[in-house]
Amino acid sequence: MKPKSLPPSRSLPPRRLLAIAAAAALFSSQGVHAASQSKHPKATLDGSEVVCPLGTFICPPRPDNFALCRPNGMLEFYDPFLTKDSSLRTTAKTDVASDHVESPDQIVYHLSGHVKTIRADQELHADFADYNSDTTDYDARGGVHYQEATHLLSADHITGNTDSSTGLATGNVRYQMLDSHGNGTAVQAQMLDADRNRYTAASYSTCDIGNHIWEIRAKEIDTDDTTARGVAHSATMSMFGVPFFYFPWMSFPLNNDRQSGFLYPYFEHTSRAGYQFRIPYYFNLAPNYDATLTPRYYTQRGAMLAGEVRYMFPRTNGEFEIEFLPRDNYNDQKLTSTSIDTQGQQRYLYKFVNNTSLWPGWSLNTSINRASDQNYLRDFGDDLFTISTAQLFSSIYVNGSGNWWSASFGGDVWQNVDPSEPNSVEPYKRLPRATFNADIPFARWYDVGLTSEAVDFHKFNQVEGSRLDLYPYVDADFQGPAWFIRPKLAYRYTTYSLDSGYQRYSYYAPVSNGITSPFTQSNPSRSLPIVSLDQGLIFERSTSMFGSDYTQTLEPRLYYLYVPYRNQNNLPLFDTGLMAFDDWMLFAPNQYSGADRQMNANNLTGAITTRLLDDGGVERLSATFGQIRYFTPQRIQAPCTGTSTQGCAPVTDWTGSDYVAELSTQLNDQWTASTEYLWNPVTRKTDLGTFTIQRRLGFDGILNFSYRFRRGLLEQYDVSAVYPLTERWRLIGDWTYSVMDKRTVEAVAGVQYEGCCVKVSVIARHYVTGYDGVITSLPPGQVPPGSDTAVMFQLEFKGMGTFSGQTDSILRRDILGYQ
Known about the structure:
Layout: E1 95-97, E2 100-102, E3 108-119, E4 122-132, E5 137-147, E6 151-161, E7 166-177, E8 183-191, E9 196-204, E10 214-224, E11 229-239, E12 242-253, E13 261-262, E14 266-270, E15 274-278, E16 281-286, E17 289-298, E18 302-312, E19 316-325, E20 347-359, E21 362-371, H1 376-380, H2 384-387, E22 391-401, E23 405-416, E24 429-442, E25 446-458, E26 465-476, E27 478-480, E28 483-498, E29 506-508, E30 516-518, E31 525-537, E32 539-545, E33 548-563, E34 601-613, E35 619-630, E36 659-665, E37 671-680, E38 685-697, E39 701-710, E40 714-724, E41 729-738, E42 743-754, E43 758-768, E44 787-797, E45 801-802, H3 806-814
Antiparallel strand pairs: 1-3, 2-3, 3-4, 4-5, 5-6, 6-7, 7-8, 8-9, 9-10, 10-11, 11-12, 13-16, 14-15, 14-44, 15-17, 16-17, 17-18, 18-19, 19-20, 20-21, 21-22, 22-23, 23-24, 24-25, 25-26, 26-28, 27-28, 28-31, 29-30, 31-33, 32-33, 33-34, 34-35, 35-36, 36-37, 37-38, 38-39, 39-40, 40-41, 41-42, ...
């Protein structure tokens, strides 16, 4: 199975195979194949793993977990005290013990009665054994048991030759791979050489010995340690004894290393694409590059070919993905009236990410994302995250940095992939764009620096031009153990060069009471000073709470900001927008996201924070309360949209901003909670409110509840849970409801079963795909417009791979703390 991330360049670790004839190597001190082995980390037999930390947003996938298998489920003769270091074989002595030994010619040795030989990590037991020291032939009979660092083997009879590393085992052959939990039986086992084995009329599974929930039964099974791959001929795969698939030829992994071969197929159904079937083939081309080719078939849309190439070289690494549908067989314009007719058209999506080191301190970073049309993500996406993407972003930059400076040169473009919006919603192309930033320390406390940007903006049927923004500053950081004072003096100069025809464009400015304000200068500019003073104190004391000792801090902070007013109505609005007020803006020098607008300010922020730190320094509780006090009105406003002043932000003429309150706590390892609240003292209404609480249920269970409110934008509830019914069964659910839209945004329900060697997930998802207008009442049972339903099935044979890794990735994104 292909791993999630490409490992660095390296060789595959050599391994011993199921050493049937290697047991007899213990009889000779010469000609022993005992190459040292490097180990590849695997999931431990007891299933131990690191639990995802409480409060983590996205947890990594869990490794194969064999904790539900029978404890100490090895073959009965396993010796846990035998060394695991196979590198000791070349120098170790061989200890031989038996009830009787005969050597008529000092070449042939006959051993009988409790024959036992030990050499480093190798141990052999048999009732009888013959060994020829001249030819290195051997013959072990009667209850033969063999153990080495990575394998166990038992048979009635083993014969072979140690020099050629060949051998033959017959009669009740049983084997077990200690690294991968694989085991099985065979009528006959043959060692072809030191690296290859062949099993006749054999079985293979990673389940408990004697209790194979699933297994592969084949006419022949070949294993190769150099590739860590098994090949089954005329193989039948069965589950609970019921065959469900026949393979004339089947390749499967013996460990978790990257290996070429078919990955398991994936099945899904969505209303916009129909039933989907895909079967990937993975190409392990080299230790540092690989590829995956994935043929797909959609019952409503046709055949698609997808591919992925990943590479990692000393100075460059990257990834290329493409999806291509030669001809779309289906057209769906139900989403909006602006949907594109794609019937009979080629559909595609490609992504290219590359990072190249050019020379010390400089790199080339590329990210290209393009789709054939606006409807692509809606038609072929199968989760809320994909179908809610409205813009595909692409960029290419040369980036450089040193001890006190950083620079970049490149450009950014966007593609609209929201079928409900016209292409005019695409942001300006920033091409080319250059930045240079510097921060140079001098004396003991001071820094002098510069933030600068030069960019050219392009957009059809809009005012175009270039902008230069220079932001030099001098600041200081005076501080002690319990205080800090950080003054900063800056100057911002922004100038434009508008392209010809700029006079044709205008916008509605709130200060002119809705009168159209055309651009009247080809080279408008703005310059102003920015002065700030940030200062705070830190008090500490010892306290106790709920029977535990803590260190409590009290941290008052004041932040003064002064920016004089400059009329900016004649400046275009290229890439700047008013940011929603949030906690971090209490200490921000500008409420706009770009350089086209710089707010005026004569403000003082007051805030106070308290924390509880345990004896290990872990923050168990944090609470903050603050507000900005305005001494002058905020006169800089963003231009209105549309054809009137409706929707224009009013001038800030009140004395204070929203009150900001935050609280987060994790008093133990089972509970964590956080909340943020913004209250407007003028309207006496809540502008923002969030609340999230998480409870861990046992080892892998989780319960989440969250509430999100932003006035005029959204109000949502979200409940999600992974509830363990037993150690093998767990229920999964997620429900997100929009109060403003009066509808379910996304709902997930499923069940998972996990046993010793198998894991089954069945997940049903209902999610919004976008819509126009307001949702009205619908007849009972009718699906609201702009929604979709998907049913996904994932079957994992531990140690073998999965039918679908997509189910787990969706759940990790939708359910906070899912693992």
